[in-house]
């Protein structure tokens, strides 16, 4: 291979395919600069992640230690001065270094994405409130134009626009154009500009920046600021060489920064050349691995940079294309070459399309590529379950049998050599379940759903109770958690038998104390109350983060969180709380931030170091980039990879101009060129994503999917790429293919399907023994997918949007009054005084108080006249009010409160129906046989969910549909808890109207 990239007299750009050792080449170039007299502080190396920067430093030092000990000692002494960092770290240092010249606060710090999202949400909601108060009604007009789901749509669009920073901000400051719905989109952009300014002001108040700010401000500092020439001159004085790793992941703005920093170098003049220094640029990457367009990466920059450097530097620049692959065995390299030469052909003139060049395998050995095809029965979930089962069996049989190659020969593989790569996390739980059924240890790498994990839910409930001891809901969850495991029976007795002569909010803890004093033999409950009391006292003077650590130790909770993923999630949560406290947030402010953050289901779980872990790794293809595995399983190839043009906003950066296009109608988008170009580019990225996936494999690649190809129908997804490239019209004819096809048996018989991948016809587990004195430590692994915890709650935003804030306040007040009436500590005799006492905690002005009191009293009179007050709300035997529950449905755990539950004898229920004095709107015609069947049963539970806002008759069908899931969940919870049949009703108390859910 040519060593031209080590010629430091010239600038170099390297196209280095997967597995070609591009990081090694960057390290060698860096060392060559050192050997020729460059100082570490005059070399700037930019990497994609902080981890990559650390690995780069380590690699440079390891090479020097082996090959040049004298230079190694010199460089090691200057390690703090090595300028190897991410582009964001470099921009921050640049801004801080010239903060006085730029008029910046030098104490600025960078927020992580978690805090940035919270701050952005605060800015949007505050702008909404200010817009309402000012009377400008920009928000109102935008919401009105969007129909019934106006706020959700507007909020989503604002988030979509915000995610396109920094490009969107550059467009706002320069030229922009929009396509279709011009007036509406201009209103959106006006709202966004206002929210963005509010967001910026909040950051200034907190002395913070986000990652986008770093790039925008750094570019403006070297291009637009009055001091830009001084900044560039100073940078040029201190920097002779720039090296950029993973260049294909560069965004347009990042390339503009690099371009501006090196502008004078390309002129062929300057002070450097007069002193004999020849400044250079070194770029290394692989445009076939550009898969981060959603983060702003622009694949066209790779081709453009190649052209520009040729024009600018001429003889002082050369382009190097690496041909060697040091990662994969020949079978895999051969398959990749044939496939991608056909789906990424040369001779394309679009800068967004990449062209494939074949590379050569250097490793000795054979390797194996297989394609498992399943017959489809039509249902996607069934197909995925069958496919996951086959892959799990394959993995189990390969472990301990398949031989993989290493530098000194071969060895038997284990689970730690294997990885399952998924396009998305849609079917993650299915693959987890399949591995668990086969007793295969696994770990999900870079998973999401941090706030829904059980360990975080428990910690959040503990924290919320410490912040607000009146938070009954959080307390109930703590009591039912493994920390205390207080039974439902005990809690139901407390709720039913013990009442505090005060308002209902926050009565649970005092009720527990009263119950425990009356029943001193309840030792577990006594212990629980003692601990909770102690924690509340400690919370008055102990930081919450420290107290959570103490609670985990005192309760032995670490025994439940021993599994590594759960352990690091707990640590991440405590660090978040610690950071909030460090920034001076009070308890209620922390609670509010965590409530908002918990709405983000995509929040990443804490990172787990899987090195040395004997477990199958499951991850997305995006997360696998930069990694390699001896054995790779790539399922779901039949999933449609055609990019959906679902985004209503597209930002195009062609030819230096930023064009923002908006169109909500998907049918119209199909006719607009910019949306079609965007769709095509996403389709091209799917090909690059496929390339990244298959090139992770070192020894063994197993692909799989459902074969739905026929004479009248082509296969879908990435299977279509394979079928078209290799003419797989007949999957039974596999002669001459660079891979083996294994057809699985019918999906219904997948448990007996043949297992692909074995090197021998009969598979036998490898028997092995360990030396007598060898100690073996086994890291415990949790094979079960972590369940997702979900609240079954009413959509407050929908009520606020349609009926206003007053009905939110009235809703809370009604629920407290109804609860008091049901429990007996509010009576009809002193009703007005109690209603006023409730409202004093909810409203500010006397006028609002009087108006809302009249509404509540009027509705109660209607309920009394209709008979519903007596039949449903007032005290009755075998009834519960505000009943909390947790419903475990496997992968999902639902929690919530049931407003009212009445358990009746079946005979009584039938008698009441015949008298016609209850459930007037719920009568149902029954045959004689049906009635006889019911009489034989003992009990039936009636579930009532209060909806206190006004409705019209025509709204009822839509509301029944909206609340159907909530009510069915209530019904399942009650039937499981009491082991009886249940009926559920929505009770519209303002009308009044009772509607049965069926």
From TrEMBL:
Molecular function terms from GO: 3'-5' DNA helicase activity; ATP binding; DNA binding; exonuclease activity
Signal sequence segment: none
Domain of life: Bacteria
Key word Hydrolase present: yes
Domain UvrD-like helicase C-terminal: 339-626
One cellular component term from this protein's GO annotations in UniProt: cytosol
InterPro entries: DNA_helicase_UvrD-like_C (IPR014017), DNA_helicase_UvrD/REP (IPR000212), P-loop_NTPase (IPR027417), PDDEXK-like_dom_sf (IPR011604), Restrct_endonuc-II-like (IPR011335), UvrD-like_ATP-bd (IPR014016)
EC assignment: 5.6.2.4
Domain UvrD-like helicase ATP-binding: 1-329
Annotated ATP binding sites: 16-23
Catalytic activity: ATP + H2O = ADP + phosphate + H(+); Couples ATP hydrolysis with the unwinding of duplex DNA by translocating in the 3'-5' direction
BP term (GO), one: recombinational repair
Record keywords: ATP-binding, DNA damage, DNA repair, DNA-binding, Exonuclease, Helicase, Hydrolase, Isomerase, Nuclease, Nucleotide-binding
UniProt xrefs under Gene3D superfamilies: 3.90.320.10, P-loop containing nucleotide triphosphate hydrolases (3.40.50.300), PCRA, domain 4 (1.10.486.10)
Keyword tRNA processing: no
Name of the molecule in the record: DNA 3'-5' helicase
Organism of origin: Dissulfurispira thermophila
């Amino acid at each position: 291979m040519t060593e031209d990239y080590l010629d430091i007299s010239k600038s170099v750009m390297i196209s280095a395919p997967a597995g070609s050792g591009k990081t090694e080449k960057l390290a060698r170039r860096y060392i060559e600069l050192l050997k020729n007299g460059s100082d570490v502080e005059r070399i700037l190396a930019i990497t994609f992640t902080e981890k990559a920067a650390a690995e780069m430093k380590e690699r440079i030092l390891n090479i020097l230690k082996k090959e040049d000990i004298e230079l190694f000692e010199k460089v090691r002494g200057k390690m703090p001065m090595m300028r190897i960092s991410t582009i964001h770290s470099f921009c921050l240092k640049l801004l801080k270094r010239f903060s006085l010249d730029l008029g910046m606060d030098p104490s600025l710090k960078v927020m992580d994405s978690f805090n940035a999202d919270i701050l952005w949400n605060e800015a949007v909601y505050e702008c909404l409130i200010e817009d309402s108060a000012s009377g400008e009604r920009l928000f109102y007009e935008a919401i009105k134009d969007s129909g019934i789901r106006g706020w959700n749509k507007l909020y989503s669009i604002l988030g979509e626009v915000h995610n396109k920073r920094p490009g969107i901000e550059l467009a706002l400051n320069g030229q922009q154009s929009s396509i279709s719905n011009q007036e509406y989109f201009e209103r959106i952009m006006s709202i966004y500009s206002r929210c963005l300014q509010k967001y910026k002001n909040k950051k200034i108040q907190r002395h913070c920046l986000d990652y986008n700010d770093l790039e925008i401000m750094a570019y403006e500092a070297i291009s637009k600021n009055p001091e830009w020439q001084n900044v560039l001159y100073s940078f040029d004085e201190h920097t002779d060489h720039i090296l950029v790793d993973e260049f294909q992941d560069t965004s347009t703005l990042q390339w503009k920064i690099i371009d501006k920093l090196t502008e004078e170098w390309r002129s062929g003049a300057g002070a450097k050349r007069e002193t004999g220094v020849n400044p250079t640029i070194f770029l290394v990457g692989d445009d076939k691995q550009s898969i981060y367009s959603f983060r702003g990466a622009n694949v066209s920059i790779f081709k453009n940079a190649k052209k520009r450097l040729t024009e600018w530097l001429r003889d002082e620049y050369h382009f190097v294309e690496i041909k060697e692959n040091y990662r994969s065995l020949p079978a895999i390299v051969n398959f990749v070459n044939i496939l991608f030469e056909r789906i990424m052909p040369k001779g394309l003139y679009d800068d967004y399309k990449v062209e494939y060049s074949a590379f050569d395998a250097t490793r000795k050995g054979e390797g194996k590529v297989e394609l498992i095809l399943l017959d489809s029965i039509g249902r996607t979930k069934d197909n995925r379950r069958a496919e996951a089962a086959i892959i799990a069996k394959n993995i189990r049989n390969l472990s301990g049998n398949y031989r993989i190659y290493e530098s000194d020969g071969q060895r038997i593989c284990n689970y730690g050599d294997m990885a399952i790569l998924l396009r998305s996390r849609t079917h993650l739980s299915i693959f987890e379940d399949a591995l668990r059924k086969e007793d295969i240890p696994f770990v999900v790498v870079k998973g999401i759903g941090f706030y829904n994990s059980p360990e975080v839910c428990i910690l959040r409930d503990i924290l919320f109770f410490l912040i607000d001891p009146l938070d009954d809901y959080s307390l109930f969850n703590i009591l039912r958690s493994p920390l205390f495991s207080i039974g439902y029976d005990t809690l139901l007795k407390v709720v039913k038998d013990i009442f505090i002569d005060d308002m209902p909010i926050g009565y649970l803890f005092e009720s527990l104390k009263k119950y425990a004093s009356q029943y001193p033999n309840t030792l577990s409950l006594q212990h629980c109350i003692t601990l909770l009391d102690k924690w509340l006292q400690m919370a008055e003077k102990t930081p919450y983060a420290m107290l959570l650590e103490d609670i985990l130790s005192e309760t032995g909770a670490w025994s439940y969180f021993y599994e590594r993923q759960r352990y690091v999630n707990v640590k991440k949560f405590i660090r978040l709380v610690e950071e909030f406290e460090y920034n001076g947030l009070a308890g209620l402010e922390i609670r509010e931030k965590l409530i908002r953050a918990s709405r983000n289901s995509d929040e990443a779980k804490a990172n787990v170091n899987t090195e040395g872990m004997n477990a199958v790794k499951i991850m997305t293809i995006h997360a696998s980039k930069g990694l390699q595995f001896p054995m790779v399983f790539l399922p779901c190839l039949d999933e449609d990879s055609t990019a959906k043009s679902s985004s209503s906003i597209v930002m195009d950066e062609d030819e230096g101009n930023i064009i923002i296009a908006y169109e909500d109608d998907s049918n119209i988008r199909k006719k607009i060129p910019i949306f079609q170009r965007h769709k095509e580019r996403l389709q091209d990225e799917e090909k690059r994503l496929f390339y990244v996936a298959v090139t992770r494999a070192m020894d063994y690649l197993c692909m799989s999917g459902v074969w739905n190809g026929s004479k009248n129908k082509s296969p879908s997804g990435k299977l279509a790429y394979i079928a078209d490239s290799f003419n797989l019209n007949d999957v039974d004819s596999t002669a001459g293919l660079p891979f083996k096809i294994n057809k699985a048996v019918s999906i219904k018989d997948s448990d007996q399907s043949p297992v692909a991948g074995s090197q021998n016809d009969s598979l036998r587990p490898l028997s092995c023994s360990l030396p007598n004195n060898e100690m073996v430590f086994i890291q415990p692994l949790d094979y079960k997918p972590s369940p997702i915890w979900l609240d079954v709650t009413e959509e407050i935003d929908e009520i606020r949007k349609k009926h206003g804030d007053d009905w939110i306040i009235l809703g809370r007040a009604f629920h407290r009054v109804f609860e008091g009436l049901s429990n007996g500590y509010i009576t009809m005799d002193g009703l007005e005084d109690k209603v006023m006492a409730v409202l004093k905690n909810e409203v500010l002005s006397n006028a609002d108080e009087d108006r809302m009191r009249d509404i509540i009293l009027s509705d109660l009179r209607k309920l009394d006249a209709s008979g519903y007050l007596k039949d449903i709300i007032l005290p009755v035997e075998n009834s519960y009010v505000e009943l909390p529950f947790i419903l475990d449905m496997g992968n999902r755990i639902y929690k919530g409160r049931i407003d009212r539950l009445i358990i009746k004898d079946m005979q009584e229920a039938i008698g009441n129906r015949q008298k016609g004095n209850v459930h007037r709107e719920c009568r149902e015609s029954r045959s004689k046989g049906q009635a006889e069947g019911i009489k034989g049963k003992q009990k039936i539970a009636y579930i009532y969910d209060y909806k206190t806002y006004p409705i019209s008759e025509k709204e009822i069908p839509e509301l029944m549909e909206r609340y159907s899931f909530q009510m069915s969940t209530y019904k399942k919870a009650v039937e499981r808890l009491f082991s009886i049949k249940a009926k559920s009703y929505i009770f519209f108390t303002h009308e009044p109207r009772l509607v049965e859910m069926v």
